[in-house]
Design a protein that fits this description.
With 284 residues, this protein is α/β, with parallel strands linked by helices. The chain is 39% helix and 20% strand.
């Protein structure tokens, strides 16, 4: 009965989120953006991505954006508005789907993410992007995905890449330091039951000298992912002697921070701060 209740609840929440993001997509203009929808990057798992490119882009920065949803829900189509928002600022944005819990645990969704990043680097030039000016970005659990790929070298190694191939990464209310996970069955399923397994799921544990630059965007009123996580990540970067820019936005919560990239731009300067960061860490 408990499993049935959880499943029904998730379906209801997913339907509401799908309707909400569909309304945002419908009201935002895609003028000046060329969209390439449903490009397959992993035929074996039927995984696709969408690319949003500025018209007449040449050697533009590339951002691979991972949606959030507690590692359990989300679809790339919901975040069309984010891809368009970035593309309007001169960025080639790549928004992939990736497998989620309970289909896969952490190794599954990080492997999918790594494959999407490799695809983005290999195909960037086809859309006017610069393969050597590649950033990762994600909201909430998507921020965790971006952070893990940027700090724990084993994941990009799967696709013959390494964190230093990235120009940087941007976390939008990302989850970087969320132990303990107690006895939550879903989180134990995703991240393991032993202290060693769970420690291996925390991006803060992998920050070392040579880590790519980070931009950590965080609302001070976030009660889903507390600001302490971004502060902890910034501290680990400082210890490693690598650049991490922490931006705390007063009066801004978890979803408001995300929506400040689109329909709630007046709430926080996240889009301006993100583009400024990207321009300050050019290709290498």
């Amino acid at each position: 009965m408990r499993i049935l209740l959880i499943t029904v609840t998730l379906l209801c929440l997913t339907a509401c989120r799908a309707t909400f993001f569909a309304s945002i997509n419908a009201t935002q203009s895609g003028e000046g953006v060329i969209a390439h929808d449903g490009l397959i990057y992993d035929p074996a798992h039927h995984l696709a991505l969408d690319v949003y490119a500025p018209a007449h882009a040449e050697h533009a920065p590339v951002v691979v954006y991972f949606f959030g949803g507690d590692w359990q829900e989300g679809k790339r189509q919901w975040d069309r508005w984010m891809g368009e928002a970035l593309a309007k600022q001169g960025v080639v944005a790549v928004v992939p789907d990736y497998r989620l819990w309970p289909v896969v645990g952490m190794a599954g969704f990080l492997t999918d993410a790594a494959n999407a990043v490799r695809w983005a680097r290999d195909h960037a030039a086809e859309f006017g992007g610069a393969p050597n000016n590649l950033f990762l970005m994600g909201h909430s659990s998507g921020g965790h995905v971006a952070a893990m790929l940027a700090t724990d070298r084993q994941w990009l190694a799967i696709v013959d890449m390494q964190p230093r191939d990235l120009s940087g990464w941007i976390g939008v209310a990302g989850t970087y330091d969320f132990l303990p996970i107690d006895d939550d069955a879903d989180y134990v399923g995703m991240f393991g039951s032993t202290p060693e397994q769970q420690a291996a799921s925390q991006p803060v544990n992998f920050v070392t000298p040579g880590a790519p630059p980070a931009l950590l965007l965080q609302g001070e009123d976030d009660t889903e992912v507390f600001p302490a996580e971004a502060i902890s990540m910034a501290s680990r970067y400082d210890d490693a002697g690598e650049p991490a820019e922490l931006r705390l936005y007063p009066g801004v919560g978890h979803e408001a921070l995300l929506l400040a990239f689109g329909p709630m731009k007046q709430r926080a300067s996240v889009l301006v701060d993100t583009i400024d960061f990207i321009h300050r860490y050019p290709s290498h």
